[in-house]
Amino acid sequence: MSFSVEVLAGIAIELQRGIGHQDRFQRLITTLRQVLACDASALLRYESRQFIPLAIDGLAQDVLGRRFTLEGHPRLEAIARAGDVVRFPADSDLPDPYDGLIPGQESLKVHACVGLPLFAGQNLIGALTLDAMTPEQFEVFSDEELRLVAALAAGALSNALLIEQLESQNMLPGSSGVFEPIKETHMIGLSPAMTQLKKEIEIVAGSDLNVLIGGETGTGKELVAKAIHQGSPRAVNPLVYLNCAALPESVAESELFGHVKGAFTGAISNRSGKFEMADNGTLFLDEIGELSLALQAKLLRVLQYGDIQRVGDDRSLRVDVRVLAATNRDLREEVLAGRFRADLFHRLSVFPLFVPPLRERGDDVVLLAGYGAK
């Protein structure tokens, strides 16, 4: 494979640096154009049998105002139908929708094109298109590498669409809605840092977004997770806790996903894992940065497809679980070091929260002292 861990990590981290969705989308396709050395790239949203450009790089600006119907653009229709990476050869009979739309190359036809359909579960939500004037430009990249790129792009688009839906339901700032205050969770503090944190908790609690909670040891990340769960529609269902740092590698998979009788020595009966226990509720994974890369891959699959496999079982079980994860590590650094998967980092950090240490909370120390003296 010609993609390095550093390249994939860089793409994932760029997606987290953007302030708004549009900024993140633009960073994504600009980075891809550099990594793949293509002449043009575009991120498209799928809606009502048409593709709507969200961000472009290397294409004429008027592309952003266009709507590409499937009926009028057979190459895009092929991407929508494919369900996987689509490579169009230079001599393809299907016209490229961007012919004549690459500035400075208006008289030339695109010679190489790759289409990546983007899915949220089984639903087509968009596409990523990559174009080059050199016929062999994308041959060096395997389908598996391009699928990884598609997974990162699909995650970014899916999260953006979900947040857009929340905004339309008066659940985020900028709407006219009124937030319900979070229930009492012993989150003591009136400092600007804590006030901002409580506001962010109220924003995200009512959604179904995954949340990554960062902060030093002892800052109260578990309290934040409890507040999010209590303020969510899942509050009537379980909040299940798992400390990933306390899991020996030999039992970690069974703790997460369960096992069947006879799966290993000592497995004398079937046992549900934490994901099954948290079905229709919330799973809080504390110290997620301690999970092995092998378990990270299995966790990623659950986040992508919503199914698990008990150890020793060939059958898949569907689960509906919201994941809250906490860490005292800098996961961006862990990704760059190859100790944490870039795609899992991107899936978890949809709505990152940071719990400030006490030294950054001003007079909150007085309030905490008073609370402790009760």
From TrEMBL:
<dbReference type="InterPro" id="IPR003018">
    <property type="entry name" value="GAF"/>
</dbReference>
<keyword id="KW-0547">Nucleotide-binding</keyword>
<dbReference type="Pfam" id="PF00158">
    <property type="entry name" value="Sigma54_activat"/>
</dbReference>
<dbReference type="InterPro" id="IPR002078">
    <property type="entry name" value="Sigma_54_int"/>
</dbReference>
<dbReference type="InterPro" id="IPR029016">
    <property type="entry name" value="GAF-like_dom_sf"/>
</dbReference>
<dbReference type="InterPro" id="IPR003593">
    <property type="entry name" value="AAA+_ATPase"/>
</dbReference>
<dbReference type="InterPro" id="IPR025943">
    <property type="entry name" value="Sigma_54_int_dom_ATP-bd_2"/>
</dbReference>
<dbReference type="GO" id="GO:0005524">
    <property type="term" value="F:ATP binding"/>
</dbReference>
<keyword id="KW-0238">DNA-binding</keyword>
<dbReference type="InterPro" id="IPR027417">
    <property type="entry name" value="P-loop_NTPase"/>
</dbReference>
<dbReference type="GO" id="GO:0006355">
    <property type="term" value="P:regulation of DNA-templated transcription"/>
</dbReference>
<dbReference type="GO" id="GO:0003677">
    <property type="term" value="F:DNA binding"/>
</dbReference>
<feature type="domain" description="Sigma-54 factor interaction">
    <location>
        <begin position="187"/>
        <end position="374"/>
    </location>
</feature>
<keyword id="KW-0067">ATP-binding</keyword>
<dbReference type="Pfam" id="PF01590">
    <property type="entry name" value="GAF"/>
</dbReference>
<keyword id="KW-0805">Transcription regulation</keyword>
<protein>
    <submittedName>
        <fullName>Nitrogen regulation protein NR1</fullName>
    </submittedName>
</protein>
<keyword id="KW-0804">Transcription</keyword>
<dbReference type="InterPro" id="IPR025662">
    <property type="entry name" value="Sigma_54_int_dom_ATP-bd_1"/>
</dbReference>
